[in-house]
Amino acid sequence: MTSTTAALMSTVDEIYRREIRVLQKSAYLDWLAFFAPEFRYRMPVVKNTDARADMIARDGELAYYDEDRTTMELRVRKLASSHAWTEIPPSRLRYFVQVLDLTVGEGGFEVVSNILVFRTRNEDQEHTYYGERTDRFVEVAGEWKIAERVVVLDRARLAAENMNIFL
Questions:
Q1: How far is CA 74 from each of CA 28, 66, 100, rounded to the nearest angstrom?
Q2: DSSP labels, the chain
Q3: What family name appears in the similarity comment (predicted)?
Q4: Contact residues for 29 (Cβ-Cβ < 8 A; gap 6+)
Q5: What local confidence, expressed as pLDDT, does residue 47 receive?
Q6: Residues 27, 28, 30, 36: what is their CA dihedral angle, to the nearest 10 degrees?
Q7: In sequence order, which residues have a C-beta less than 8 Å from that of residue 65 and are 6 or more positions away?
Q8: What is the pTM of this model?
Q9: Cβ-based burial of 58 (10 A; exposed 0-12, middle 13-18, buried ≥19)
Q10: Cβ pair 99, 111 in contact under 8 A
Q11: CB atoms closer than 10 angstroms to residue 89
Q12: Nearest to 125, CA basis, from 152, 96, 89
């Protein structure tokens, strides 16, 4: 591992730890600060098929999330308001992120991670989300920001009644 890669890994670790703290508090308006001004957040649908290459919905196909800053701000503002009845009472969240790989490229770098998220609500609602997350970072005003996040869950069907959390 080069010294540049090691330094970036340390930076990513710090960014992810801060991000997890914000997400576990459901402070989604603050969470948007981790993203570049122009970003894309995508969570494609996973399909059961015979060919591994066809399991993940392609760009432009069905996704649980396919957001840019404008649509994500709308989602986040709704969740921060009293109009998000599906989050009353709010979910309790626990995030675990394991960095697997960091690749430096032109204009930034890409990080591939395993994710595990536990969500509980009320006394009897529990959901577990796990899969792979790929983040592309770019530098914005001297800080590393997420320009693109793609989350691919390992389950083909979500058991949750709603999807009001972000992975």
A1: 11, 13, 32
A2: --HHHHHHHHHHHHHHHHHHHHHHTT-HHHHGGGEEEEEEEEEE-B---SSGGGSBPPTTS-EEEEE-HHHHHHHHHHHHSTT-GGGSSPPEEEEEEEEEEEEEETTEEEEEEEEEEEEEETTTEEEEEEEEEEEEEEEETTEEEEEEEEEEES-SS--SS---S--
A3: Belongs to the bacterial ring-hydroxylating dioxygenase beta subunit family.
A4: 76, 77, 80
A5: 80
A6: 160
A7: 41, 42, 43, 151, 163, 166
A8: 0.91
A9: exposed
A10: yes
A11: 7
A12: 89
Environment class of residue 149 by beta-carbon count within 10 Å: exposed (0-12), middle (13-18) or buried (19+)? buried
Give me the pLDDT at residue 122, please: 82
The tokens of 120 are what? 């509980």
Rounded to whole angstroms, how far apart are CA atoms 137 and 14?
14
Compute and round to an integer the Cα radius of gyration of the chain.
16
The residue behind tokens 């930076």 is: 11
Tokens of 56: 């993940």
